[in-house]
Amino acid sequence: MFSSLKASGANLFPGLAVAITIGFAASFLGEHYGAPTMLFALLLGMALRFLYENDQAVAGINFAGCEVLRTGVALLGLRIAIGDVMAVGIETLALLAVGIVSTIFVGMALSKFMGLKSRFGALTGGAVAICGASAALALSAVLPDGKNKEQNTIFAVIGVTSLSTIAMIIYPIISGSLAHSEEAAGLFLGGTIHDVAQVVGAGYSISEPAGDTATLVKLIRVAFLVPVVFVFAIAFRSQTTAGARPTIFPMFLVGFAACVALNSYVDIPAGVKDVFVSASRFMLVTAIAAIGLKSNLKELVNVGLKPVLLMVMETVWLAVIILVGMEMVL
């Protein structure tokens, strides 16, 4: 058994080492230049795609893009506590639920109208509605395999990260022009901006109370990842062959729910929790580096304008739904 594990580790090491190295480089660049770390990881991975053509690296890169990804998503649950979710009130929870569900369905409808596959609209809609690049990776993990799956995932990550950065700059201005209170500004920013990092940046650029509210609302959106991934696993299961069908309830989703429960009912030392949360973040960066390594830039260039318009319209839809809902809730 030990020799088998050793052989397996030796088989995975070259490719996994490449993905981890890119992850460290992307983290360094993100920290020192203030740009999204996941975008750096993706671009560096795409630039080094030739490494994926080496047979010795394939197994490790595939492992990073699948198993490391799922572990990272599971550990995201340590950022969420059930008590925090309930503290925002049923009206806010309902508003966020409507925004998330409607954005996914609008994405699917628009995707079909534009001649794209509904699963692509579901993927981009889920990424926009829930938590950006992390949601795109988690949702992609339960979608059926296909020749365009990696390409669609990469496009969703690039699109949602770019739009999130734009929103981080524009949305605080919109909130100010509407004379939002600090609580309302936090709700708007946390309920609409795609990635957690950009929500934090936009919220605290207004004030500390706005930043606290925005971060909490955003983490509640992250909590919606559990039911949405579960629904995706069921809804798209019939589109795969019987032998390739994903399980109805993926184990990484079970792990996510278990981490939420653990964080809610167990007093985890702050230092310990920070270690695992940081590990989760780095695992996702490593996974997106692996997806970049597996990508084909030529195919991505041929995507066209329609997917770009799709993600912009999904983003606008979510912002409008939250703004209209806020007028009714607050």
How does this model look, in words?
The protein is built from 16 helices and no strands. The protein has helices spanning 2-33, 37-47, 55-75, 82-87, 90-113, 118-129, 133-140, 149-177, 182-192, 196-206, 208-223, 225-235, 251-265, 270-293, 297-301, 306-329. Helix 7 packs antiparallel against helix 8 (149-177) and helix 9 runs parallel beside helix 11. The longest helix is centred in the N-terminal third of the chain and has 32 residues, at 2-33. The N and C termini lie far apart (61 Å).
Low-confidence stretches: 1-5
Mean pLDDT, all residues: 84
Radius of gyration: 19 Å
| Class computed from helices, strands and strand pairing | mainly alpha
H/E element order: HHHHHHHHHHHHHHHH
Helical percentage: over 70%
Q: Please tell me what the overall shape is.
A: globular
Q: How far apart, in Å, are the first and last alpha carbons?
A: 61 Å
Q: Supply the number of helical segments.
A: 16
Assembly annotation: single chain
According to DSSP, the number of beta strands is 0
Indicate the proportion of strand residues: under 5%
- Main sheet attributes: strand count, strand direction, barrel closure: none
